[in-house]
Design a protein that fits this description.
Blueprint (H helix, E strand, L loop, with lengths): L8 H21 L3 E3 H25 L5 E5 L5 E4 L1 H17 L7 E3 L28 E3 L3 E9 L1 H5 L7 E8 L2 E9 L9 E6 L3 E2 L17 E5 L3 H12 L3 E5 L2 H9 L5 E4 L3 E2 H13 L3 E3 L15 E2 L3 E4 L3 H17 L1
Parallel strand pairs: 4-6, 11-12, 11-13
Antiparallel strand pairs: 1-5, 2-3, 6-7, 7-8, 8-9, 9-10, 13-17, 14-16, 15-17
Helix pairs in contact: 2-3, 5-8, 6-7
Amino acid sequence: MMNSVKINYMAVAATLTVVIIFMMSFYHHRSPTVNLRELLSASIDLAEKGGLKTVEVKKKHKLNAESKGKTKEGADEMKTDGDMQSHRVIIAGFHKTFPSLASRIVSEEHDKRHASEDAPDANIRRPETQLLPSEFVKVKDITVWVDPLDATQEYTEDLDQYVTVMICVAVKGKPVIGVVHRTEKSEQYDKETMWAWVGNGISNNMGAIKDITKAPKDPKIIISRSHKGDGEEIVKQAFGGGKVISAGGAGYKAVEVIRGKADVYAHVTLIKKWDICAGNALLNAVGGKMKTLKNETITYDKESGPLNKNGLLASMSHFNYYLDKLGPLFSAKIKS
């Protein structure tokens, strides 16, 4: 006589539940990741390749400059072949080297052309990054911001000291990798690339950071060239003195603060995140701060959108002091 088999359906269901949970957990942890060290190396490499394109276009004297529209101040928002060729080489390089990141890249420029299959891979093993640690991050947590040519207006006016190419990597909205590449040698600076990975390393050319124990009575405030009149009035009202430096390019201004050439970088109107993310990462890496004029932390995840609407203030030290002095005055300009 055959033995009867009794099936414990509750036990089977419990076992299946455990198996399903294990498999879901397994595949969750197997979700695509990127090594931030390799992404830093590629970002440096692609920023420099983009810079070469901007220089090539300039030497041919065929910028094909056109306006994309007007800024809030009424100035033309320019685009040139330099912007587009830099954009193409950077985006193609990222797509080729990190195909899983394609949907997580946000560039100032847009192009119907697809990334070329014969585009060269980005160098993910540059010597300056090889002593840094490996750190793997899920693709879904990454946003890459690309400004293929910052200070386009100045680029068309041959004010090359302001022109940079910038790439920034944000993880869960926080700027952790910043690359600012100065494209051409000028009277002030050599062609160079500054980079930082917050908590892990900075480029040697970032310079010695000054320890400023007391805020200067007459601070140097760097602002946009189109805001100079308002800036001088506000700085005089806030400090009774001080100096206003007008300059082009958000990347240039952030670096001037880091190097001590300016005490504060202030921006009154709306600004795009591809303009400021890399500079924010550099500042964070060396102990500085960049926040909105309302003292808000700027979030850089793709889902939050590209617009930073409440202006910004950046400094290497005494941030709250400058914010208390300048924030209300510059914020009034945002509302006006």
